[in-house]
């Protein structure tokens, strides 16, 4: 066992898979730059030392270039070209490799939408099963005082694309196990990681998600939610940073005699509806919390599914707590106003419990 | 200068071009007769590009095509029967009826599922090239695109990286002068839309008469040799012309009649190569006519087979969204 934060757990997962399987390689912008970044959130930092990278190493006087014949590199620094990055993943995956790609910020996924939506997601289908695209695309999400274009929680867009899998691990244990699962999966998997959960203490609002986790490889299957807290009165389904906030709310409410059950879906496609239904059979109340915006966030799909299949277990309307339909502003006071807070979750859950 | 190929190869290239021509013509009539669903983006007029580029490729080399894939697929070795079945949406189609006219392909002969997003296949081919390079294989990828695709962002992002990484990809611009209906001269300053822009990315390029199968084949051989030797990508710009419209029901009113007449008469790649092999005595006219009749019969057999072939089970629509482990 070893104590790791999410960033270390992700790196550990990738390096173990790279050692185990020569088809696995890393690719991205600033993927591993000597004396520089290793992904913006340092997940891939140092992997080039073991696996080789195309880099320019600065010295006291001048520099030297390494790994320019990228045939021997398994950590590839790309130009800032997201279409290229997406396409190279699709093509190399179809030809037998297993790319693990890094996007500096999830918001940049929109620059490669064609490659993700029209290409990665559809190649297996259009070819009637001749081709497969085993690729991993990692994308940091969440509002962290960088303004509207480095802030979005865009998981839900991709749950709407048949052919993609969408996961959002939020603990060190899940980060490692689900990353290994993603690398071994034979389909394109989008991994959404929250910027405030990586474990970088310099990041305002950082929440510790570290854990004492196995040092050897293990997998956490997709489509299995985690019950983060057991309770009797209200079921709260929340992902990434939001379930940590819901935990704080639950502690507050416990003092008032309101008992919350907190479910972290962990993967959004496939989604574990059964665990939610089992919980509302007990509580009769469902609240959904996500940092994504309100309209057609993944909570809308969950609410609709429950309405279709399990409405008889509910004693009150479903409540959704989400970021309002609004871009994310820079000023901390404005940002904090929009992102679901412990206070807002507490108030909404209290109201729901009393219905 | 052109070195005329062996008799066997010249005849092989001619008959493949003839097959593509007759296949496209037959499909056109099947459409007019209302027997075939969907739409069509046809490649007749561009046969020399497909055959010249792909004739010497190995089966385990890959090819990435576009929304106009029939010639490429036939030249890469996708079977006539599986192509025709796909056109009729039949279960035995090369994509089980899920692909259609714009997505034919058969990876068992190295033909990737064709890509109907203009420029979408360019970075994918780079990824395939990267995989071959990392796997230490000497395979190459031929990636076709149109003049219009050279204006896509994907073209520039891809060429920049491919030039730097020296990937074993041959990028082939079939410049047929029109991006759907818009003249390429209206949309970019360069005369050689792909080749003139290759230099800035450090990629060698050649401009070739795309209606001369021997010239195309020689340029292909140079580019393939470079790629196999690990020397990196080449951009070939093949000047050619679409005999049909962009898609079905396109009467091409935007093209000057004298331009059409020039390309479709004086520059017809199939007719001109036929004349050449006959004048060189590769075969007699009678022998060739018999072979052509044989090709036409194969196409008719494929049409008959495809018409009679079973449709997919409707519920198969839900298969192959994900790969189950």
Task: Describe the protein's architecture and organization.
The complex is a heterodimer of chains A (355) and B (325). Chain A is an alpha/beta fold and 355 residues long. Chain A is 34% helix and 20% strand. Chain A folds into two domains: 2-213, 3-Layer(aba) Sandwich (Rossmann fold), CATH 3.40.50; 226-354, Rossmann fold (3-Layer(aba) Sandwich), CATH 3.40.50. Chain A contains twelve helices and 16 strands. The termini of chain A are far apart. Chain B is an alpha/beta fold. Chain B has one domain (7-308): Thiamin diphosphate (ThDP)-binding fold, Pyr/PP domains (Rossmann fold), CATH 3.40.50.970. Helices cover 43% and strands 10% of the residues of chain B. In chain B, the strands form two sheets. In chain B, strands 1-2-3-7-6 form a five-stranded parallel β-sheet, with helices on both faces. A two-stranded antiparallel ribbon of chain B has the order 4-5. At the A-B interface, helix 3, helix 4 and helix 5 of A face helix 5 and helix 6 of B.
């Amino acid at each position: 066992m070893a104590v790791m934060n999410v960033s270390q757990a992700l790196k550990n997962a990738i390096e173990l898979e790279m050692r185990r399987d020569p088809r696995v390689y890393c690719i991205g912008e600033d993927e591993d730059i000597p004396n520089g970044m290793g992904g913006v959130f340092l997940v891939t930092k140092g992997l080039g030392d073991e696996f080789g990278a195309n880099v320019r190493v600065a010295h006291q006087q001048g520099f030297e270039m390494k790994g320019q014949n990228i045939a021997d590199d398994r950590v590839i620094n790309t130009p800032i070209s997201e279409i290229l990055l997406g396409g190279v993943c699709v093509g190399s995956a179809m030809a037998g490799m297993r790319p693990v790609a890094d996007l500096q910020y999830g918001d940049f996924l929109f620059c490669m939408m064609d490659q993700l939506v029209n290409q990665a997601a559809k190649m297996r289908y259009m070819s009637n099963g001749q081709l497969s695209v085993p690729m991993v695309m990692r994308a940091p999400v969440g509002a962290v005082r960088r303004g509207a274009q480095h802030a979005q929680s865009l998981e839900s867009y991709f749950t709407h694309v048949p052919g993609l899998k969408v996961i959002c691990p939020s603990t060190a244990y899940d980060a490692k196990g689900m990353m290994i699962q993603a690398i071994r999966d034979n389909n394109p998997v989008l991994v959404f990681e929250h910027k405030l959960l990586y474990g970088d203490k310099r990041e305002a609002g950082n929440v510790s998600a570290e854990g004492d986790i196995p040092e050897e490889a293990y997998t956490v299957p997709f489509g299995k939610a985690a019950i983060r807290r057991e309770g009797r009165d209200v079921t709260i389904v929340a992902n990434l940073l939001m379930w940590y906030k819901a935990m704080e709310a639950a502690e507050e409410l416990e003092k008032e005699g309101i008992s919350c059950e907190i479910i972290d879906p962990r993967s959004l496609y496939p989604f574990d509806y059964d665990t939610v239904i089992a919980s509302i059979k007990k509580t009769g109340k469902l609240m959904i919390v996500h940092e994504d915006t309100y309209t057609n966030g993944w909570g809308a799909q969950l609410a609709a599914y429950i309405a279709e299949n399990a409405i008889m277990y509910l004693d009150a309307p479903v409540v959704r707590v989400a970021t309002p339909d609004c871009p994310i502003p820079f000023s901390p006071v404005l940002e904090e106003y929009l992102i679901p807070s412990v206070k807002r979750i507490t108030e909404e859950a209290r109201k729901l419990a009393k219905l | 200068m052109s070195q005329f190929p062996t008799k066997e190869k010249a005849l092989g290239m001619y008959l493949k071009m003839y097959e593509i021509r007759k296949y496209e013509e037959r499909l056109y009539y099947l459409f007019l007769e209302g027997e075939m669903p969907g739409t069509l983006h046809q490649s007749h007029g561009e046969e020399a590009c497909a055959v010249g580029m792909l004739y010497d490729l190995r089966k385990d080399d890959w090819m990435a095509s576009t929304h106009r894939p029939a010639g490429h697929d036939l030249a890469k070795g996708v079977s006539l029967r599986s192509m025709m079945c796909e056109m009729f949406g039949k279960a035995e189609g090369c994509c089980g009826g899920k692909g259609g006219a714009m997505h034919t392909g058969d990876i068992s002969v190295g033909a990737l599922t064709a890509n109907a997003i203009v420029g979408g296949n360019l970075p994918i081919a780079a990824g395939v090239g990267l995989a071959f390079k990392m796997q230490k294989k000497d395979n190459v990828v031929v990636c076709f695109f149109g003049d219009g695709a050279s204006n896509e962002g994907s073209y520039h992002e891809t060429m920049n990286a491919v030039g730097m990484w020296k990937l074993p990809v041959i990028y082939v611009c079939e410049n047929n002068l029109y991006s759907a209906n818009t003249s390429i001269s209206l949309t970019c300053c360069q005369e050689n839309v792909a080749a003139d822009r290759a230099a800035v990315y450090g990629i060698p390029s050649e401009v070739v008469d795309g209606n001369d199968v021997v010239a195309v084949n020689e340029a292909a051989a140079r580019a393939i040799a470079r790629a196999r030797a690990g020397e990196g990508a080449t951009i070939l710009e093949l000047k050619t012309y679409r005999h049909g419209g962009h898609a079905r029901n396109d009467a091409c009113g935007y093209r000057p009649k004298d331009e059409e007449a020039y390309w479709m008469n004086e520059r017809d790649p199939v007719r001109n190569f036929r004349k050449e092999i006959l004048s060189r005595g590769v075969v007699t006219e009678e022998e060739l006519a018999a072979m052509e009749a044989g090709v036409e019969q194969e196409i008719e057999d494929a049409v008959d087979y495809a018409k009679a072939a079973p449709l997919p089970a409707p519920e198969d629509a839900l298969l192959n969204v994900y790969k189950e482990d």
